[in-house]
Amino acid sequence: MSEKKKVVVVGGTGYLGQHLLQCFSDEIRQANPCNYEIAFTYHSNLPPKTLLNSIPHSFAFPVDLRSGHGFHAISQTFGQPHVVVNCAALSVPRACEMDPTAAMSINVPSALVKWLSSFSESSTLLIHLSTDQVYEGIKSFYKEEDETVPVNVYGKSKVAAEQFISADYPNFAILRSSIIFGPQTVSPVPKSLPIQWIDSVLSKGDKVDFFHDEFRCPVYVKDVVAIIQTLCNRWISDRKKMQLLLNVGGPDRVSRLQMAEVVAHIRGYSTSLLEPVSASSVDRGVKSPADISMDVTKLIQTLNFSPTSFLDGVRLTLAAESGSQC
Q1: Is the pTM of this model over 0.85?
Q2: pLDDT at 161 > cutoff 90
Q3: What pLDDT digit, counting tens, does each position of 181-210 carry?
Q4: How many other CB atoms are there within 10 angstroms of residue 95's CB atom?
Q5: Are the C-beta atoms of residues 60 and 52 closer than 8 Å to each other?
Q6: How far is 165 from 128, CA to CA, in rounded Å?
Q7: What is the mean pLDDT of the chain?
Q8: Cβ atoms within 10 A of the Cβ of 167, count?
Q9: What is the pLDDT of residue 197?
Q10: Measured between alpha carbons, how far is 83 from 62 in angstroms, rounded to an integer?
Q11: How far apart are CA 161 and CA 173, in angstroms?
C-alpha cells in the first residue's frame, strides 16, 4: 500500500473549509485503498455533529492561531502533513477595521509557519487563502504582478501575510480569492452567503438596493476546491519546489447589481425590484475598493483549469438550495 497523503485544513469549520473536507472525505470513501488522511482545526466551539458525521475518517484539533497552541498535538497524533490548507482568517473587513491588532495576529500565519518549520524535513506545502482586496481597486482585471495597494486593514493584513509566507516558508501556493459563492455547507455557517441572501430578499417582493459601481470576479466554491485539490495532487506526485501566486476568481467581472440580475433572471423575479445605488452612498464603516476584478489567465494556464461562469455557478447554487442538485 502506498503512503497515505496527509492533509490538514486550518479553519475546517468555515465555509471553504467544510467544502474542502467534504471533497477529501468523498475521495476517501471512493478510493480503494484509501489514499488520504484528513485532519482539520477549529478555534473555540466543538465542531458540529453534522460536520463530524459527514467526514467520519477525519481528525479534529483545537488550535489557537495567534499563540500556536494546539499545533503540537497535531504533530504528536497526526504527524507531519504533506499539505496544509490555511482557510482561517478574520475576513470581515469592518471587524478588521475595528480591531487591527486581531486582524494582523490572526491573518498573518506566523504561528502556523513556525510549526511547519519545526519539522526536520521541509516537505509540507502551505496553500494559503488570500484575497482580491490586496488590490487598490482603481482599474479592471488586476494581474498577479500588479502592485498591491490595499485600502483597508483586511487587505493590509493579507498583504502582510503574503509577504511573511514568501519570505519565511520555502514551498507555498498563495491564492488571491474573490467572493466565494455556492451551496450551503453540511453544517450551515452563520455568515450570510451572497447568492442565498440575494434570493431571500428578492423572494419577498420588496425593492432592494444593490451597488452598481463595485466590481469583483466571484468564484464558485467547487472551483476553489478543485484548484486546491489539483495543487495538492501536483505537490504530492512531483515534490518539486513550489512558490506560486495565483488570482482565483471566476471568468466574469460583475457588480452587486449584475449579480442580483442573474439571480432574478433564474428565479423569475422582476428586475424592477433591483434599485441601483452607488457604493459611496452607504457608510459601511470601512473603505472598500471599487474595482478589484482579476485576470485569471495565469490560473487557467498553470493548472489547465476552466472556471465556472457566474451564470452557471448561480444555477448550480440555486438548484442545490432547492434540493434538486447534490
Answers
A1: yes
A2: yes
A3: 999 999 999 889 999 999 999 999 999 999
A4: 15
A5: yes
A6: 9
A7: 94
A8: 8
A9: 97
A10: 18
A11: 12
Residue count of the chain: 326
Grid cell locating 178: 474573490
Average pLDDT over residues 133-145: 98
Phi/psi region, residue 279 (left: phi>0; alpha: psi -120 to 50; beta: rest), is alpha
Grid cell of 9 as nine digits: 485544513
Half-sphere exposure (Cβ direction) of 262: Cα atoms closer than 13 Å: 21
pLDDT digits (tens, 9 = 90+) for 247-273: 999 999 999 999 999 999 999 999 999
Residues contacting residue 69 through CB under 8 Å, at least 6 positions apart: 63
Distance (Å) of CA 32 to CA 73, 82, 236: 29, 20, 18
Copy the grid coordinates of residue 239.
515534490
Instruction: Say which residue the cell 459601511 belongs to.
Output: 284
Q: What whole-number distance in Å separates Cα of residue 227 and Cα of residue 248?
A: 9
Dist CA 326 CA 320 (whole Å):
6
Q: At what angle do helices 153-168 and 100-107 cross, to 10 degrees?
A: 30
Cell output for 319: 438548484
If DSSP states are collapsed to H, E and C, what string results for the chain?
CCCCEEEEEECCCCHHHHHHHHHHHHHHHHCCCCCEEEEEEECCCCCCHHHHHHCCCEEEEECCCCCCCCHHHHHHHCCCCCEEEECCCCCCHHHHHHCHHHHHHHHCCHHHHHHHHCCCCCCCEEEEEEEHHHCCCECCCECCCCCCCCCCHHHHHHHHHHHHHHHHCCCEEEEEECCEECCCCCCCCCCCCHHHHHHHHHHCCCCEEEECCCEECCEEHHHHHHHHHHHHHHHHHHCCCCEEEEEECCCCCEEHHHHHHHHHHHHCCCHHHEEEECHHHCCCCCCCCCECCECCHHHHHHHCCCCCCHHHHHHHHHHHHCCCCC
Q: Cell 452557471 identifies what position? A: 312
